[in-house]
Predict the structure.
Amino acid sequence: MKLRIYTDGGSRGNPGPAASGAVIKSIDGHADGETLAHVSKWLGKDTNNQAEYTAIIIGLQRAKTLGGTEIDMVMDSELAVRQLNGIYKVKNPDIAKRFVEVHNLIQNFKKVTFRHVRREFNKEADAVVNKCIDEHVGK
């Protein structure tokens, strides 16, 4: 099954109260199909980049349970996309741990791609993140 996963991570302050979110959709041809899942994770105090990577991890974990085989990862973190596509090196040791976790997770799928989109094309995942943060710290 082909799935598209929109991911986002955010922190209010950097570091600050942080959460990660993912929206998983089926793929209908090249377009988004049905929304299959919204997942989020409260991180407590963390950085934006850590939250971005955690979003990728929770998205891939849920995709595995949904039976996904080919995954199109879509995110507004240009840094994460470039690191995961091998364009940039991962220098931060904490990000390196999550990078390895992502690498291990993608072994569960036939194919995984990582694409960057502008923020305005990632609003649903952003809303999942903000809802999670609001539930823990308020607006």
Remarks:
- DSSP finds four helices and five strands in the chain.
- The chain has a mean pLDDT of 96.
